[in-house]
């Protein structure tokens, strides 16, 4: 979508009533036939636009894609999401966002896609990303913190997403699986992948990648036991632009608090209340070893607190958690 | 320098005696006049090459630049430095190396420059990088460790450089200033800037940037109190290619040991023996606060151990150290 088309869409979404063709001509310094071409372009992208002689144009149907014009009406936060770059298809929004961040894109910039051809989860695993149904987006952050603190962001984002999901679906019983997933009914609903570029003393940028299974109605056979969607859990369809905005609205104040507080202490009660692994026996697979124990909570630095069979407390800062006597 | 020119240079450096023009023709499938053109190119870059009818070509003088052909004869390590990309001038070898790493350059690849137009130290500060005298190079690593361990690499590299410098200049009294500088006579001789791209569980790549003031004979007035060079400290001139190779030769075994050991325990005695700050009263400036205390050592995770005025032990993982009652 070119710049003027996007701006015309923004104006149409901002006004519930008809907008005269003349007003659009004046606003962009273009002819009536040029306005008409932009309207046709928007219709070809799925927007329903009424055109009535003497009154002008009125938006009567959105596409439900996570584009700036459809997300902005729902944004209440101040900095995040003011600039959303949307792709119908991209390899991975994290790859795109890392490139933009390296070029200097400001904090709060978002890359969103309708579909990813190479969506990824942690450790290079793939994240299935079909078009038209789910949310795949990446948020660029520039926190002035040493690099060792950045892994805490994964849990903080998970808390914000959990808050947003529960707000929009009151029946949903979703749990946060340390450190980066949200599950419902034991199946994956959402994943977070934070990537950063840093030196020890300072963080150049962080890219927070978020995938949420929103309206997907079925999963391939090999994922049916391990993945679910908001639609499958609640029977409702959700507005993707509204949900994206809601995640940003919930995350921005948590992020600001975290920058001030220097750790996760302020959000620990929430994280522990909704922790899938709390009091469970788990195995944590790390790059070179596995650690076993019973989960006793989360430290203010985001580490999982395990109690070993010998009663010792172990702090685990990274790894893949598996419930014992389960394949999850 | 094009590929064949570089390969002819490699052959000439490998053989102390004359190499016949015919042998070079055969080796590269080129004509005698083509060989002659490559020889002229090498001479134009500063190489002294004797040409004697009936005997061939003999290298009688190197340029002393950190190019692959001049570094390789001194390399004894197995993986580091086998692939050196040399630039007469670049913005910053770290910027160049990060771009190469993002494209998949293998571990051990090195970017070296004769001169940097935008050389940087920690926290975005500039690193003065005049041509012809010093070493500026960046090494690409791909350690299979969680991102929280990467800051330890800075101290490990500092130890390797310290070993290399002391090996080549037995009179030099150099000290390691936690976490990333080497000083002689209280002035900066060398700096290390590690940058990484990572997710919490795994490190995609680390770029270790190293600047060593080697043969620089004078510094601008504003740096004379804070910077020095190997030449100024020892009165000797040093071969830059040999010194670069020596740093890699010392670092590779330390790095391999670190990957196995999982922490810096094995090198702590060395780090503490040569620690500038040991037993000193210091202030550590961090992004948001300052910490004061007396240095009691280094932890196996690379943190500085401070004893506060109240006798409490404080572990500091990042920041800029200043000796109290000093401006350093």
Task: Walk me through the structure.
The structure is a homodimer of 328-residue chains. By secondary structure, the first copy, chain A, is α+β, with helices and mostly antiparallel strands. Chain A folds into 3 domains: 3-61, Winged helix-like DNA-binding domain superfamily/Winged helix DNA-binding domain (Arc Repressor Mutant, subunit A), CATH 1.10.10; 68-273, Bira Bifunctional Protein, Domain 2 (BirA Bifunctional Protein, domain 2, 2-Layer Sandwich), CATH 3.30.930; 281-323, SH3 type barrels (Roll). Helix content of chain A is 30%, strand content 25%. Chain A contains 9 helices and 14 strands. Chain A has helices at 3-14, 21-28, 32-44, 68-71, 93-102, 152-168, 230-234, 240-261, 268-273; strands at 48-52, 56-61, 84-87, 110-113, 135-141, 174-177, 181-184, 187-198, 203-212, 281-285, 290-298, 304-307, 313-316, 320-323. In chain A, the strands form 3 sheets. Chain A has a 7-stranded mixed sheet with strand order 3-4-5-9-8-7-6, with helices on both faces. In chain A, strand 8 (187-198) and strand 9 (203-212) form a beta hairpin. In chain A, helix 2 packs across helix 3 and helix 6 crosses helix 8 (240-261). The longest helix of chain A has 22 residues, at 240-261. The mean pLDDT of chain A is 92. Chain A binds chain B through residues 98, 122-123, 144-148, 150-151, 154, 179, 193-202, 204, 262, 286-288, 317-320, and chain B through 98, 122-124, 144-148, 150-151, 154, 179-180, 193-202, 204, 262, 286-288, 317-320. Strand 8 of chain A pairs antiparallel with strand 8 of chain B. Chains A, B: Residues 69-259 form the BPL/LPL catalytic domain.
């Amino acid at each position: 979508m070119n710049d003027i088309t996007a701006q015309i869409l923004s104006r149409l979404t901002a006004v519930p009533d008809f907008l005269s063709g003349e007003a659009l001509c004046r606003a962009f310094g273009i002819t009536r036939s040029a306005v008409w071409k932009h309207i046709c372009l928007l219709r070809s992208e799925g927007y329903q636009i009424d055109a009535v002689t003497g009154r002008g144009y009125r938006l009567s149907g959105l596409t439900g894609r996570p584009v700036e014009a459809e997300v902005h009406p729902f944004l209440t936060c101040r900095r995040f999401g003011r600039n959303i770059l949307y792709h119908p298809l991209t390899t991975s929004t994290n790859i795109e966002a890392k490139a933009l961040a390296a070029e200097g894109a400001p904090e709060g910039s978002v890359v969103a896609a309708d579909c990813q051809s190479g969506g990824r989860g942690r450790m290079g695993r793939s994240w299935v990303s079909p078009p038209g149904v789910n949310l795949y987006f990446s948020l660029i952050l520039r926190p002035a913190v040493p690099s060792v603190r950045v892994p805490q962001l994964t849990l903080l984002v998970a808390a914000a997403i959990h808050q947003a999901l529960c707000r929009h679906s009151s029946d949903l019983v979703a749990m946060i699986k340390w450190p980066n997933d949200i599950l419902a009914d034991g199946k994956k609903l959402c994943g977070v992948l934070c990537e950063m570029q840093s030196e020890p003393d300072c963080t150049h940028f962080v890219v927070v990648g978020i995938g949420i299974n929103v309206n997907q109605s079925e999963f391939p056979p090999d994922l049916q036991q391990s993945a679910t969607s908001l639609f499958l859990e609640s029977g409702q369809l959700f507005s993707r632009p509204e949900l994206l905005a809601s995640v940003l609205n919930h995350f921005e104040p948590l992020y600001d608090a975290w920058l001030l507080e220097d750790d996760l202490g302020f959000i620990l009660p929430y994280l522990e209340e909704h922790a899938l692994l709390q009091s469970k026996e788990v195995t944590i697979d790390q790059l070179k070893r596995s650690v076993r124990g019973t989960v006793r909570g989360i430290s203010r630095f985001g580490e999982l607190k395990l109690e070993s069979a010998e009663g010792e407390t172990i702090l685990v800062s990274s790894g893949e958690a598996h419930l014992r006597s389960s394949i999850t």
